[in-house]
Amino acid sequence: MSSFTPKQVFPRRKPGDTPAPRGALSIYDPIYLGLDTRGQPVHVTLMYRNILLGGEPGSGKSVALGNIVSHAALSTDVDLVLIDGKLVELLPYAPVAKEFVANDMHKALRVLRSLQAEMDRRYLHLAQTGRKKVTNKDGFRATLLAIDELAFFTVTVGTKEQQDEFKTLVRDLVARGRAAGIIVVAATQRPSADIVPTSLRDLFSYRLAFRCTTESSSDIILGTGWAKEGYSAKDISPDTIGIGLLLAEGGIPRRIKTAFLTDLHVTKLVRRAVHLRRAA
């Protein structure tokens, strides 16, 4: 994968009603992911949407997750809540996170319960105002919840009851969080039905499948039937890191190559994000 600088990756922030430090981005802006097969830039707009990422270890999933979290870090109109079962992937962004959770099931559940309560408070506001979704004029900040390695919390650590509660909380936040300004970005290795049940997968507006070893694993991320239609992440060569199939609501899977942030890029980016958020 070719590397890039933050200037190449992130679009200039559009003028809006809410003042922001010069150079800051917005979570309402499209997020750059990489290039398609024609060399055209690929963006996703995640405000009022969610995205699920999956694939084999080393396929590029965490890189794509980092692209999204990097944009959010530079966006002063969104709070970051990061849950990282592997600890190392999202840790560099901890200085700009409202909450950072490592491999701690008790803290993860506490943070998710708090987000659920905040979501309920926002829905009460919507009910009282007759609105359908919160905006940046309602006084509520957008929240991006990024979870790296769902399987750690849903099948590996904790009791069966805790794992079930984790799944239930995440599903509720994905199902109802969109209108409340809560974005969920979830990633998992080795996709399987016990980690990403159909009832959860189908709630995600965007799905991005990287290299999978079986067609069924690919379908667990993209949706049942896509492999038979010729869209299978199993066909991605193990040697091509960063290649994935991106599916948007109402569309067909689109082959993309994700951009790559080096560790140095991330370090500089987070330093800049800290400065921007202090100035906001």
Describe the structure in your own words.
By secondary structure, the chain is an alpha/beta fold. The protein contains eight helices and ten strands. A ten-stranded mixed β-sheet has the order 2-1-10-9-8-3-7-6-4-5. A hairpin with a 4-residue loop joins strand 1 and strand 2 (41-44). Helix 3 runs parallel beside helix 5 (160-176). The longest helix has 25 residues, at 105-129. The two termini are 34 Å apart.
Largest sheet: 10 strands, mixed
Overall outline:
globular
Cα radius of gyration in angstroms: 18 Å
**DSSP, total strands:** 10
H/I helix tally? 8
**Average predicted confidence as pLDDT:** 91
Counting helices, strands and paired strands, the structural category is alpha/beta
Which range does the strand content fall in?
15-25%
| First-residue to last-residue Cα separation | 34 Å
Q: In what order do the strands lie side by side in the largest sheet?
A: 2-1-10-9-8-3-7-6-4-5
The stretches of 5 or more residues where confidence is low (pLDDT under 50) are 1-17
Brief summary:
The protein is of the alpha/beta class. 34% of the residues lie in helices and 20% in strands. The model is unreliable at 1-17 (pLDDT under 50).
Strand and helix layout:
Blueprint lengths: L5 H4 L21 E6 L4 E4 L6 E5 L5 H13 L4 E7 L14 E3 L3 H25 L12 E7 L1 H7 L3 H17 L5 E8 L8 H4 L4 E5 L4 H8 L20 E6 L5 E5 L4 H17 L1
Parallel strand pairs: 3-7, 3-8, 4-5, 4-6, 6-7
Antiparallel strand pairs: 1-2, 1-10, 8-9, 9-10
Helix pairs in contact: 3-5, 4-5
